[in-house]
């Protein structure tokens, strides 16, 4: 299993991560504000189709290690708030919701594999211009989630994201030429 997300269709990126279970623990990290806030964003999730998903991003709070925010992301330095809508709700196996700032949708699928849980994250309907940042962002956030679930100190967000975003720029360009 590659850590890199696969571009499976135009505007679609898919990631797989094997996480320590049980499935209910991983589901809690997707849906409970205090746990989701350790790797992605805090905020309540209304547990139903059509329910609101609050996303309060504060990247500097994801790791205790020092970070460097690139100039193009300085507007996120003090955090960013947004909302989305639940499009699928099938606990504890599947959660889909819209993604702020466009018509895209993110889906989290959980499948038990012995004591572990396979997480498949698919982000669909991303514009080509948003793909490198979104793919680099998910790659970075998922790395933080893996570290959190294994009890390790995660790497700082932007110091990790910056080279990943550059790598995904190459991957997106290559995929669009295929």
TrEMBL record:
Q: Which residues form the Activator of Hsp90 ATPase homologue 1/2-like C-terminal domain?
A: 22-147
Its recorded name reads Uncharacterized protein YndB with AHSA1/START domain
Q: What is the lineage of its organism?
A: Bacteria, Pseudomonadati, Pseudomonadota, Alphaproteobacteria, Rhodospirillales
Family indicated by similarity: Belongs to the AHA1 family.
CDD domains hit by this protein: SRPBCC_CalC_Aha1-like_6 (cd08899)
């Amino acid at each position: 299993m590659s850590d890199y997300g696969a571009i499976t269709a135009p505007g679609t990126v898919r990631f797989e991560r094997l996480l320590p279970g049980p499935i209910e623990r991983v589901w809690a990290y997707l849906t409970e504000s205090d746990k989701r806030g350790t790797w992605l964003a805090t905020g309540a999730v209304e547990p139903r189709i059509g329910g609101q998903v609050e996303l309060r991003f504060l990247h500097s709070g994801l790791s205790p290690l020092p970070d460097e925010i690139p100039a193009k992301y300085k507007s996120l330095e003090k955090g960013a708030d947004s909302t989305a809508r639940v499009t699928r709700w099938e606990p504890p196996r599947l959660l889909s919701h819209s993604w702020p700032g466009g018509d895209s949708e993110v889906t989290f699928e959980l499948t038990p594999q012995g004591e572990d849980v396979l997480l498949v994250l698919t982000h669909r309907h991303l514009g080509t211009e948003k793909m490198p940042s979104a793919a680099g962002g998910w790659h970075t956030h998922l790395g933080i989630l893996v570290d959190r679930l294994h009890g390790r100190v995660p790497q700082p967000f932007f110091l990790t994201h910056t080279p990943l975003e550059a790598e995904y720029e190459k991957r997106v360009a290559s995929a669009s030429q295929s």
